[in-house]
Specification:
11 helices, about 40% helix, alpha/beta, binds 1,3-dihydroxyacetonephosphate, TIM Barrel
Length: about 250
């Protein structure tokens, strides 16, 4: 049985005060034995969030990581820096990074490796746009996104990675993929990995992201190849986020 994981991606939302109140409210709703729940907060709040989550069941993650280890890369944050703040996870290749900030398949692969070199678990995001889906390119886009990382880091690296399928057309639109639409792609991804290494494929956590809410989480998470979710908007509300987490158990 694979463990489930529910990750909140706060994106560029919140404040110092909101970080404190949201972390505290989520932690208050968890039991000490709970596992598989993480918040990915803006970089500047990692220090506060690290203190708030230390010794609690709530894990911490970043929303990105540099594709280089150090040096003259103005504005970037390295994996070793993240490591100083108890970051267990780092999202890489989110579609908003790919679309607005030019992250390429190659740079995403470098970010993925940089995270792993510091013992941080990358949450590798893949997914097609609406246009690509309508042109029957969903699987070829996902192949390209995954192959760039597989070629650079190897199949074994996925023993310590998470994949998130996030169809771009479902992100922040309120238009979620149906349970079956999501499962179809998750199954495709798992079979792709299984063709290279069955054991890695069997244990790989594949999360679904895109308008996951408390009322649709249960159906999505019940699908055989969906192992949890990467939650945007709904992770900014502690009660709703905890409900989504409960749906994963
Ligand atoms: O992009 C997402 C998580 O990374 C999904 O965002 P929403 O849940 O707001 O659609």
């Amino acid at each position: 049985m694979r463990q489930t994981l529910v990750a909140g991606n706060w994106k560029m939302n919140g404040s110092k005060a909101a970080t404190e109140s949201l972390c505290k409210a989520i932690i208050a709703g968890l039991n000490s034995s709970d596992t598989g729940i993480v918040v990915c907060v803006p970089y500047v709040y990692l220090s506060d969030a690290a203190k708030l989550t230390e010794g609690t069941p709530l894990d911490l993650g970043a929303q990105n990581v540099a594709d280089q280890s150090s040096g003259a890369y103005t504005g970037e944050i390295s994996a070793s820096m993240l490591n100083e703040f108890n970051c267990k996870y780092a999202i890489v290749g989110h579609s908003e990074r790919r679309t607005y900030y030019g992250d390429t398949n190659e740079s995403v692969a470098s970010r993925y490796s940089q995270a792993q070199q510091q013992g941080i678990v990358p949450i590798l995001c893949v997914g097609e746009t609406l246009e690509q889906r309508e042109n029957d390119q969903t699987f070829s886009v996902i192949d390209e996104q995954l192959d760039a990382v597989l070629n650079a880091a190897g199949i074994e690296s996925f023993a310590k990675a998470v994949v998130a399928y996030e169809p771009v057309w479902a992100i922040g639109t309120g238009r979620t993929a149906s349970d079956e639409q999501a499962q179809e792609v998750h199954q495709y991804i798992r079979q792709k990995f299984a063709a290279k290494n069955q054991a890695i494929a069997d244990q790989l956590q594949i999360l679904y992201g895109g308008s996951v809410k408390p009322d649709n989480a249960k159906g999505l998470f019940a699908m055989p190849d969906i192992d949890g979710g990467l939650i945007g908007g709904a992770s900014l509300d502690a009660e709703g986020f905890l409900k989504i987490y409960s749906a994963s158990k």
